[in-house]
């Protein structure tokens, strides 16, 4: 009986720890060319898939910029409020199968996201296969 209770406590502890390790939350994006913080993106779960919405631009070059180069329904939408990550699914310790949009170029890429410790997120955008892309490391926002 003592071993059984110990096993239950361990399972609960691992379960709680696993839930704490989630990509859900607010993340600071980093500009590739300057290394400076660029925006706050909130990642959320809806119907078993994960999405990322730009909540705030930290240093916009112009007030209320729009995604003029985006295609489809995102064209002309304000970047603040734009859902740039769409349809990620959790597979093991990665979130994959979704798309990410670069609001500056309007280009859309396949996307894979993976936690890098407790306060960093590796976000990879690529064309074709994952080797043909680049990774940004985002930091957990307070």
UniProtKB/TrEMBL annotation:
Q: Does the keyword Cell cycle apply?
A: no
Keywords, A to Z, come to: Signal
- The answer to keyword Signal applying to this record is yes
Q: Which domain of life is it from?
A: Bacteria
Alphabetical list of Pfam families matching this protein: DUF2147
Q: Where is the signal peptide?
A: 1-20
Q: Which residues form the DUF2147 domain?
A: 25-140
Name of the protein in its database record: Uncharacterized conserved protein, DUF2147 family
Q: Which organism does this record belong to?
A: Myroides marinus
């Amino acid at each position: 009986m003592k071993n059984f209770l110990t096993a239950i406590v361990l399972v609960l502890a691992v379960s709680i720890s696993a839930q704490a390790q989630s990509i859900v939350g607010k993340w600071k994006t980093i500009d590739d060319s300057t290394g400076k913080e660029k925006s706050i993106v909130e990642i959320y779960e809806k119907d078993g898939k994960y999405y990322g919405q730009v909540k705030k631009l930290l240093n916009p070059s112009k007030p209320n910029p729009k995604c003029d180069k985006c295609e489809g329904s995102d064209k002309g939408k304000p970047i603040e409020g734009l859902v740039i990550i769409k349809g990620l699914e959790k597979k093991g310790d990665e979130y994959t199968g979704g798309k990410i949009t670069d609001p500056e170029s309007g280009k859309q890429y396949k996307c894979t996201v993976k936690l890098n410790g407790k306060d960093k997120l590796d976000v990879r955008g690529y064309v074709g296969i994952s080797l043909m892309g680049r990774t940004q490391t985002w930091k957990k926002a307070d």
